[in-house]
Amino acid sequence: MPGPDSPAVLPEWISPGNTHHNARYSEAVWPLAPLIDNPGTSLIKIHWSGCPSPLLGQVKLAAWTLINGRLRPTYLKGRGVRARSRTSAVDMRDACNEWKRLARWLHERRIDSLTGCTEDVWRAYLPERWADGVTRETAEKICSHLTDLWAFDQLSAHPSDIARPPWEAEGLDDFLPEADGSAHGENSTEPLDPLVLGPLLVWAIRFVDDFADDILAAWAERERLMARAAANRASPESSTALAQFLLPRARSGGSLPAIRMHGRRTLARTYISALTGASLSQVDRFNARHQLSILANERPGPCPLDVPVTGQVNGKPWREYVDFDEAAELARHLGTAAAIICLYLTGMRPQEVQGLRSGCCPDPASDDTSRRHLIRSRHYKNVADGDGNHISAGEEREVPWVAITPVVHAIRVLERMVPSGGLLFSATHHDFTFRRQLHGVLKNDALNERIEDFVAWTNREAAAQNLPEMLIPKDPHGAIGMSRFRRSLAWHIARRPGGLIALAIQYGHMRTVLDARTSSGYGSRSRTGMHSVLDVETALAAADTAAKLQDRIAAGEKVSGPAARRALTAAATAPKFEGRIVPATFAKKAAQFLGRDGIVLFDNPEAMLICAFKRDKALCEPGPGAHAPRQYDCRPGCGNAVRTDTHARLMRERADQLDQLADASPGPLGRRFKANADRLREAADTHDATALSAKASA
Predict the structure, then answer these.
(1) Are 476 and 191 in contact (CB under 8 A)?
(2) Which of 492, 611, 636, 694 could form a disulfide with 602 if both were Cys (CB 3.0 to 4.6 A apart)?
(3) Strand pairing report for 559-560 and 600-604
(4) Contact, 35 vs 389, CB < 8 A?
(5) CA–CA dist 662, 674 (Å, integer)
(6) Nearest C-alpha neighbor of 448 from the set 352, 350, 530
(7) What b/e readout covers 406-430, taking b as 16+ CB neighbours within 10 angstroms?
(8) Which pLDDT tens digit goes with each residue over 380-404?
(9) What pLDDT digit, counting tens, does each position of 342-363 carry?
(10) What is the C-alpha separation between 171 and 231, in angstroms, rounded?
(11) How many helices (DSSP H) and strands (DSSP E) are in the chain?
């Protein structure tokens, strides 16, 4: 590895004067495999075919220095804590792509050396680069990559003397596109629609909790049959057994064991070989002689595996049997279901889930009174060594993740699918159809495709099981995708006090962990992780609550409660958040918005009130430094409570429902329902007697 001020000696093929493309590594692609240790990252390559020949040597020289060298500490000083002397393979590829783009632009203007890229050329290039439409944030990254070209050119063995970009001396702001221009592509990841996420999570948990034993037993039986078929040897006895098994079915018009292949049904040769003891070649010859694949396509029959079915749906077995032909597909969906649970119910980033290994979540020690399951694994974002160099392999997270029960079950299932100590999403061990030896783990594209396949399968199954309420609709914002689960968790924690399946548990866990561990450093870590995402969603939810309250007041509704006047002030002064685009700087603004103690409003539909949250008045005991109430622990008599006319109406409607339940319930339970109904009506009457209008409170 070269030192910080001088790169290693250049190989002959990278020489700036070498324009030949047939030498080793100088042709089409440079692989960056040695720089990638993250199992969830695909192999990164730099393609040189788009770089003009006259500029190719100089750009390659800068790229070689980028990969093998590092920026000077004097250069990094003053560039912020995120500046790195060496960066990730993805950033290297993106930088080289920007350099090639600049080279093409220069070549079109008959500038065939980086020496010709003067300050005036830099000033002319940027407006044309922004004409393609980029966000201000993306433009900052592009300028950083272009600055790196100048910086690494200075470090190279044969500098081209490309001019220093003018924004280095004058500041970047004046060179960036307008914030409200035609830019697109901001961080606008949408949470999954609740109508999508609800049944999706139910199906995923059902696969792990109810179907996993059946699927894994079926897969093991399928593997046993395949091994037996491969070991069979032809004999007269096996030939007789084959004829006795197939000919009566073919001649009687019955179905033949079939599998689907290339869009049509064909004879299940491996399954038949294992059952009869015939060799695979015997089955093939017998099939060709009697044209059985044609009959199998016309009269396909099942290939039931000899394993018991224990899983149930609504009290009935989910299958009569597991078929030989579907075992691989079901095993594939089982891995996908476990991935969905881990992605959604941990708050991990996708690459952190992909990096999980067998043994990462041991059972608690016998003397552990908390009995919590902890996930100890690696994180990858912004991990660097003491010199600021990017570490693609990441590092073990200082504070482990807390795993709730569905996550523990998912990990246990995955541990049964991979070897001890192996990656839980090993691409090799999850390739159930083709059984290939693959590198690393299932990548993002593969898992995204598997999630869509899982949705398609569950919808077919829901229709077959007559479960219309369990159909997963199409999400209004497009494909589900791995990246949307983390945002969805934050959305539901911030806006759904009760949550969906298992989310009530996770709601309490997230707030407890994020608040209680601030002093130990966890809070500061999560402030740039899940906590910052939570702040964004919580701020948006609070802003929505204030806007809705303002609309109700404008429509003539009155408010009551000990915090009524504070709520009116908050509704009148709260900023409005238009749209759903969330720039990177919004996390800090969200935290500032939530820090306005006493005038931030939180809707609690379960308690039929609004909480004008003031920490020292809250009876829910939110903890030191908390900016939001524990909405699942809302208590009567709290000084932060606010009710509107709408809440009073809803309380009376709920009281009527409780009366109906009381009439149909046994004595003690019926009396309890009646008492609750009376309390709701009393609270509604109190609201009517004490409610204030906006004018009366002024």
Answers:
(1) no
(2) 611
(3) unpaired
(4) no
(5) 6
(6) 350
(7) bbebbbebbbebbeeebbbbbbbbb
(8) 776 777 666 667 778 888 888 889 9
(9) 999 888 889 899 999 999 999 9
(10) 72
(11) 25, 15
